């Protein structure tokens, strides 16, 4: 298993307030280049961390699916959109369509995604730390750091710059 994953598991992930404070400091207006620095930290962390050794996102966070995701995945599975929706999706409290179960039904025993080529946009973009909109997702990063060792380590690297 990756050392970064082990380190994350051993860290105190229950301190949600500390993560929120850190992200707020990082995304403060004084840190104008935070998106660029975060993108570099993202590249560095993911060069050392293999998501297939974790898959915690797939086991704990049901992804949101938009209409184009539903259409694409249903076609791939040779289902009608209504069949796919009925079989695999549910509406969450925010009115978004999400996968019905966690862990994700498409997560293989080897932590590989059975529908990887057509996976939802939310899965393709997770953990949302490489886009040049790091500042705009600050609350999400604080939450995701509890589920994703990569986000945790990206935040730790950014902490040293402030």
- The class by helix and strand makeup works out as mainly alpha
Q: N- to C-terminal separation?
A: 30 Å
Taking the sheet with the most strands, its summary is: 3 strands, antiparallel
Overall mean pLDDT stands at: 89
What is the percent of helical residues? 40-55%
Q: What's the shape?
A: globular
How many alpha or pi helices? Answer: 9
Strand content: under 5%
How many domains, as an integer? 2
What labels would you give this structure?
9 helices, mainly alpha, 3-stranded antiparallel beta sheet, 162 residues, 2 domains, single chain, globular
Please write out the topology.
Blueprint: H1 3-10, H2 16-26, H3 34-46, H4 56-60, E1 64-65, H5 67-76, H6 81-88, E2 89-91, E3 97-99, H7 121-125, H8 138-144, H9 149-159
Antiparallel strand pairs: 1-3, 2-3
């Amino acid at each position: 298993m990756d050392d970064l994953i082990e380190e994350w598991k051993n860290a105190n992930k229950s301190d949600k307030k500390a993560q929120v404070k850190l992200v707020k400091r990082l995304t403060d207006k004084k840190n104008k280049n935070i998106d660029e620095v975060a993108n570099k930290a993202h590249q560095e962390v993911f060069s050392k961390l293999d998501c297939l050794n974790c898959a915690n996102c797939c086991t704990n966070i049901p992804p949101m699916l938009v209409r184009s995701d539903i259409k694409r995945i249903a076609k791939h599975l040779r289902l009608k959109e209504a069949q796919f929706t009925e079989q695999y999706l549910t509406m969450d409290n925010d009115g978004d369509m999400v996968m019905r179960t966690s862990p994700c039904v498409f997560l293989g025993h080897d932590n590989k995604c059975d529908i990887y080529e057509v996976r939802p946009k939310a899965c393709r973009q997770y953990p949302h730390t490489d886009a040049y909109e790091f500042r705009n997702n600050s609350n999400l990063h604080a939450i995701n750091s509890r589920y994703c060792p990569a986000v945790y380590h990206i935040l730790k690297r950014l902490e040293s710059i402030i």
